[in-house]
Every structure is written in structure tokens, then in C-alpha cells.
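Feature request, filed as a ticket because there's no other form

It would be nice if the structure record came with a short human-readable summary line next to the C-alpha cells. Right now we just get the raw output. Example of a typical job, pasted below so the devs can see what we mean:
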Amino acid sequence: MRNNLRMKKPNPIQTILAVAVCKLTRTILRRTGRGGTALPGIAAMKVSKNILAAVSEGMQIVVVTGTNGKTTTCNMIEHALSSSGHDCLLNRSGANLLHGMAGDLICAADWRGRARHPYAVLECDEAALKQAVPFLRPAVIVVTNLFSDQVDRYGGVGNTLKEIRTGVKRSPDAALVLNAEEPLSASLSLGVPNRVVWYGLDASAGQQGSIDLSDAGVCPRCGSEYVYDYHVYAHLGGFRCPKCGYCRQQPDVAVVSVDRKTADGSVVHIKADEIPQEVHISLPAVYNIYNAAAATAAVKALGLPAEDALRSLSSVRSSFGRLETFDLDGTRLQMILVKNPAGCNQAFSYVTGFDSDYTAVLCLNNRTGDGTDISWIEKADYEKLCADPHLKQLYVCGDKARDLYARLQKAGADPAHTVIVDDYRTLVGKMREDARPVFILPNYTAMMDLRQVLCQETGTRDFWE
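Raw output as currently delivered:
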């Protein structure tokens, strides 16, 4: 039976109590200066474990999961829907586990638990997808990509794929939006009844280094290694199996050319219907071209005009910590979240792509939100960063600053211009005194800690706003 995992709604009294508990908990937390992301949902689901089935009823929900790009892709989809006149909820705080998503949906409902928004776009952790979809019954599931990430938690990219596949199998009626160039997530289309909308790049977006097959695995049908007709980055590109024919599918939303890449964004041609259109994407870097294509495909999968998404891409703004910029008394800072080798290497490609001097700030923690295993820094290409003649100063901060410093020394960093800073207040002071542009590359909890200090110093909004 296709709907055997559909959760029953709680009774009206349970619903009202759960909503009240959730809203009250969040109000108290935010008035005391805390984000209030997961705890309100935890409290509400203590009152009624099935409250999500009530507050999500009648909504068209897009769930976005995958290793890299979830937050930005969600932001792009929500912006496309909102700018074309659709009332849409976004879990803007990035709380992407079950209780975090629950808190946002419940607080957005009225006191009787009825949804106020016809659409919702929800970022979802890869392991949480299978828990969330029986409650949410999403119309669309977007999978961005799969790379090694938090290996102490997931146990490898193959296990992450299994977690997502379980969620997909629990959502047979959802349209799947999949990256045509990423062989792991593309394999989610095999053996399922779901409609698939593909997105991708029809050709390489420029020199992106050698093909890295460490995460790609082998052909899911016959176990052979892939060959590539063209390469984008990491293991993304025009892959095919030379033995059984498993290969990249022709995208429904295709970036047919990358015409210009700058610090302010990219100009591309995207074919989402019959005729390719010139599109300006207001966020820079190759991975945001992928995110833009994914967002367009998600809008198309909802049955809405792809033109709505294409038109909105020129005005989309960065999400917190994802190419977010700060003005610190005239010094331009740009923060780029890095949390695994693939994302880190793409950030290095972006940072080293400019013909001007700069300062880099690298921050590394190993807390639960990051994954306690930091061995991934050995696989990241710090050598590329350290070899850049435009890198004039390096600051290193965070709980594992000394481990990262040692990795940088091995990568060839200049000891005379590489400094460990023990706290974020001091770090912000050093950035304030720097006349050069500053690129900040932290992992997740380091980003949250440093961003809090920067918000206080620059008057930037809190991450949940």
C-alpha cells in the first residue's frame, strides 16, 4: 500500500496544546537571545508525537536534502515562489533535523494547527529524511549531491545514500529532483515509481582540477568504474559506465553555457523549456550554478512556470554563512561555510580565482554539529590555497586551530604570515585592522560562533531572522 506510512493526525485538543507549547517555548527562547530552533519542536512532539501531520496538512512541501548546497537551494526556491506571488514558509534558521523542522512548521500554523502557508520549503538533514517524510508527505524531494561528510556520524557516503534512499522509498508520490552529473544521487532514480526531474550542466564550467572518484563509488548496476566525457568538479560531470550503459541523464533543466563568472555572480544560459535563456545568478561560484539549476527544477516539479525561478535568480540573496558578506568598518568580509573536502576545495577555487591580494581566516571545530572526526582536512587541497601568491595573511581559529595550523604548515603556509588566534573577539579586531578583503572559511559551529560576534559588531540580523 503506497500510503501505509502516512501518520494519523492528533485530536483537536492535542493539536492546540502542542501548538501552544511550541509557540510559547520559542517566544521565551528568542526573548532571551537564543535562536530556539529544536527545543520548541521537541516540546510540541512530547505533547503530540504526530503534530506534524496536522500542521503540514494541505501544504505543497519541497524538501531539500544532500551533502552540500541545501541551505542555498532552499533559499533560491523560496525566493522564486515568494517573488512570483506564492505565500511560502522557509525553515530559515537551517534547523534541519526532525524537531527543528517541526518547530518552524508548528510556529507558522494558527492556534488550531492549521497551516497558514500553501507552500513550504524545508532543508532536511540526510539522515532525518526517512523520519520526516511520513509526516510531511512532500510534493517534491530535491537531492543536491553526495560527498563524504561527518564520517563519524554517517559512516561513509554509501551509508548516507542508503539513508536518503529509505526516505525516497517512503515517499512514492513525491517528484524527485536529481543532479544528472552526480552518479550517487542519480542512482536514487533506479527501481522507484517516483517521477524524476533532472538538472545539470551540459558541459564543463571551466578548469576544475582532476576527477576525484573517491566518493563516486562504482556503477550501481554492474560495479564497473565510470568514465567521463567531461568534468565539472570532484566526481560530477558527464559520467557513464562503459559496460552496462548506466550514465548521466539528459537534464530537464540544463545549463547549456557558462558565459561569465565574477565575484558578484554568474551569467549563464539555462534551458528549462524550449529555448535557452540568459540568466544572471546573483551568487558566485560554480556550485551556485548547480543550486540555481536545482531550484529551477524544483519549481518546475511543483507544476509552476520555470520562468518564475529563472527570473528570480538575479535578485536572490546569500543565506547566512554561505557567501554572506559583512562590512567591518570598511573592511569587506565574506564568509564561506566549509565542512568537507569537496566543499572546501570549491571554496578554495573561488577564493584563489581573483587577481587581488586578500587575507584568509580558517576556523575549525570538532563539535557534534560538525562531526568530531576532523581527518577530512588531510584530503582538502590546502596546498592550492597556500600556493596562491595573492594570499598575504592567514589567521587560524577555533577549537582545533592547532591541528589546522599543522595541516597548513604541511601544505606550505608561510609561518611568518600564519597566526593562531585564540578567541573570536580578538580575531574580529585583527580583521578590522586589515585593509585587504577577508575571506572567512569556517565549519558549521565555528561559523555560528564567529557570526554571532560579527553580528554584534556590524548590526547584522540573527541567523533565524
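Something like this underneath would help us a lot:
The longest strand covers residues 253-262.
The chain has a mean pLDDT of 92.
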